[in-house]
Design a protein that fits this description.
Length: 306
């Protein structure tokens, strides 16, 4: 049907892996995550019918409608996707399982489910589209909102955030990564690696909500910029259609402009970083977070995971 489009080993084009048209807001980071998922499963030549997509509730959980899995999927109730995944994986271990969730779905109502999915080392890829707000219900703070973050109506969040990556490290997660929705160059290989991993593969994707994230006035994290910081590359533009992209080298930090003028500071792991050392990974992440930086890349892998 598309003679000019590139085909994978199965003779399928990227379009064959796409789902329905997105109803998310224009510029939403979640649509970039969908594009990265499509790219990864196309590149890996996974047959759509070998893929099972699972989600809970929230803007993030609509992502699974936008890529194809040959009909296998379950849009479950709020925070309960890991239970559905547990049942499905128990019934058929030969398929690829991709769960897409949000910070509300994962770190509030679904926190217990998330913890036990890690503890059980379920053989699945679990993507969090993390933006610190409940977008679907008009922008209330989620459990990953930074202290000092301001909501659209001006209220300030005074509660400390739950960090899913640090949580997964303490719970014994066997594959733990973080990325940014606008960095396809990093996100696609991470998704491919997560799909190949035998065990629970977590990718926490910082994915801006262009409608309700308003970080002006934050006291730390998202809007934190260290002055005169070595190797920081400032991206002083906001791309058309509010699409927020980031491209930065390994070992470098990058301050990315958000749609509202605030900034997020990302640091890509250096190639010399050893992801097999869980204790050092935890200490490194804490030290970078204290500087307002979100470390991105493959943060930890337990190579003994079956
Ligand atoms: Fe995306 Fe926010 Fe719009 Fe939801 S409300 S679709 S998270 S931009």
């Amino acid at each position: 049907a598309h003679p000019s489009l590139p085909r994978n080993a199965l003779g399928l084009t990227r379009r064959d892996y796409e789902g329905g048209m997105s109803t998310l807001c224009a510029g939403c980071g979640h649509d970039s995550v969908t594009a990265a998922i499509v790219e990864a499963i196309w590149e890996m030549s996974i047959r759509p019918e070998q893929l099972v997509k699972l989600s809970g509730i929230g803007c993030s959980s609509k992502t699974t409608a936008y890529f194809d899995s040959g009909g296998h999927g379950f849009n479950s109730v709020h925070g309960r996707m890991p239970s559905i995944a547990t049942g499905a994986i128990s019934a058929n271990r030969d398929l690829h399982y991709v769960g897409v969730s949000g910070d509300g779905d994962t770190l509030s109502i679904g926190f217990g489910q998330f913890a036990h999915a890690i503890r059980r080392n379920l053989n699945m890829l679990y993507i969090i589209e993390n933006n610190g707000v409940y977008g679907l219900t008009k922008g209330q703070f989620s459990a990953s909102a930074d202290i000092g973050t301001k909501a659209k109506r001006g209220e300030e969040n005074r509660q400390p955030p739950v960090d899913p990556v640090l949580t997964a490290l303490t719970l014994g997660g066997s594959f733990i990564a973080r990325s940014f929705s606008g960095d396809k160059e990093q996100l696609v290989p991470l998704i491919m690696a997560g799909l190949r991993h035998r065990g629970f593969a977590l990718i926490d994707v910082l994915s801006p909500c262009v409608t309700f994230n308003d970080h002006q006035g934050s006291t730390k994290s998202y809007s934190f910029i260290r002055e005169n910081y070595d190797a920081v590359v400032h991206a002083d533009f906001i791309a058309p259609a509010q699409e927020i992209t980031a491209s930065y080298a390994a070992g470098e930090a990058m301050s990315v402009a958000m749609h509202d003028g605030s900034r997020i500071l990302l640091r890509k792991l250096d190639p010399s970083y050893d992801p097999t050392d869980r204790t050092r990974a935890y200490a490194y992440l804490r030290s970078r977070l204290a500087q307002g930086e979100y470390v991105t890349g493959l943060i930890h892998i337990d190579e003994s995971s079956p």
